[in-house]
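Q: My labmate handed me this sequence with no annotations at all. I'd like to see what the chain might look like in three dimensions before we decide whether it's worth expressing. Could you predict it?
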Amino acid sequence: MVNELIRAIAKAIKYEFPQCDIFTEELEQGFESPCFFIFCEGQREYDKLDVRFLAEHTFVISYFPKKGNMDCWEVQSKLQRLLELIALDDGSLVRGTNRNGVIKQGVLHFFVNYDFYMKKQKADDEYMEVLEVYEKTRK
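A: Here is what I predict for the chain of 139 residues:
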């Protein structure tokens, strides 16, 4: 699921910033700015009723600007709207929450969470072939 979310984030960013490179595994040495780096910072699952569970995914999108902090603030405001709702490969939409960004050492770090409920695959129950019941009553 993490890879599918990364692809959806990358597709949304590429649509808005077609001139920028997007990295998902690691930054190449000597990369050219402006570019983005998408990283899943953490994933958690919480069991809920029966086969349901809550999956939480925290992403950090780092933006390496060409022009400086003014460029970072502009990109952050675009990412706020762009990553609010992303489309997965199957067409379903996922809402991003806790969207915020910080600039450290000239690089924008934008944080977003994608949390949703999922169902576990449940094994089919085995049924008995024959059931014999012996019964009798008391006096």
